Amino acid sequence: MKQQETPKKAGDRGRWYFQVLGIETDGSPTTLQEVARTRDASRTTELVTGMWDETAELPPANGDVDPLADWTPTELSSKASSKRNVRWPVVVFALAIGIAAGFALWWLPQASEQRATAHADLIADSLSDLYGDLGGLQDALAIATEPTSAVPDLGTVGLGLGSVADSAARLLDVANESAPNPLPLSPEDRFRDLDAFRIGLEPMAAEAIALRSEVAEIAEYRLALGSVMAIDALPLTADSSIVAEQTAALSKVLIESVAALDSMPTSGPFAEHRNLVDSEVTAFAQWQDDYLTALRDDDPAKAGELVEQLELTRSGLSAELVVTLATLRTDIDGRILDLAERLARSIAAVPR
Fold first, then answer.
1. Measured between alpha carbons, how far is 205 from 130 in angstroms, rounded to an integer?
2. Dihedral (C-alpha) 58, 64, 66, 71: value to the nearest 10 degrees?
3. pLDDT tens, position by position, 195-219
C-alpha cells in the first residue's frame, strides 16, 4: 500500500530552499538541459561552496545529535537555592560549639580537681604550721613556769607565743572558710568531703589559742609579781638627805606595786595567790613608815630587821607560787601533747 503523499500547495515548488542557497527562481520547473546551458564549472563550485556554508548554519537532523548534549539545569529561585546550598557559617559555628563542649568536658573536671587539691593543700599546710609551732609553745611554757626564771627571761616568752598565735589564727580562718564549689560537669565528692573535714579544724585552732593565752597569762602574772615591792639595796643608816631620797623611792615602789596588783587576774589559777599579794601590798604601806622611822631614829638594828622582813615576804610570795606553777606546767604540757597528736592525725586524714 502506497503512502499517501501530501498534496503541495499552489506555488509551493521549493523556492524557500533555493532562497537559502541564494538562487533566484520563479518556482517553475527547470530542465537539466537549461541548467547545464546556463552554468559553467566555476559557477557550480561557487554554488556548492555556498550551499555548504549555508547548510552549516542549519540545525542537524534529530537523529544525528544527542538530545542531552546541550542540556543545562533550570536555575532555581533564590529561595529554593538557599535551601539546597550548604550554610558554611552555621557549619563552622556548630563545629566550634562541638569543640568547645568537648574541651569543657575534658578541662572542667581537671580544673575542678586542681581546685579541690589546692584547698586540701591549704588545709594540710595550716595544720602543719600549727603543729610545727607547738614546740615553741612548749619552750615558752617551760620559761614561764620555771621558778628561777628572771624577769628578762619572762620577757622573751611573748616571742615564742607570737608564731603560735599566727598559725592558730590561720587555721581558724581555714576552718571558717567553706570549700570552693566544684565547676560544672565535675564530681562533687571531694568538695563535700573537704567541707565536712574543715568542721573539725576549729576546735584544734581554738585549743591552740587557749593554750597560748594561758601560757601568756602565766608569764604576765610573774612579770607583774616581779614589780611588787621591787626594791634595790636598802641602807640601814642614813642622813636627812638620804632619808628624803628613800621616802620618794619607797612611795614610787608602793604605787608600782598597787598597779601590778591591779593587773593581776582576780580569777583563775592565780586568784588565791593574788589575794596573798594583795595582803602583802597593803602591809607594805605600814612597813614603809616603820623603815623610814628607823632611819630617822638612826636605829640600824630596827632598820635591818625590817629589811630582812621585806625580803622574806617577797621570797615567800615566790615560794607560794611554785606549786601553782608546777600544776599549770603539767596540765598545759599534757594538753599541748594531746593537740599535737590530733593535728598529726588530721594532717594524715586530709581528703586527697
1. 8
2. 10
3. 888 889 999 999 999 999 999 999 9
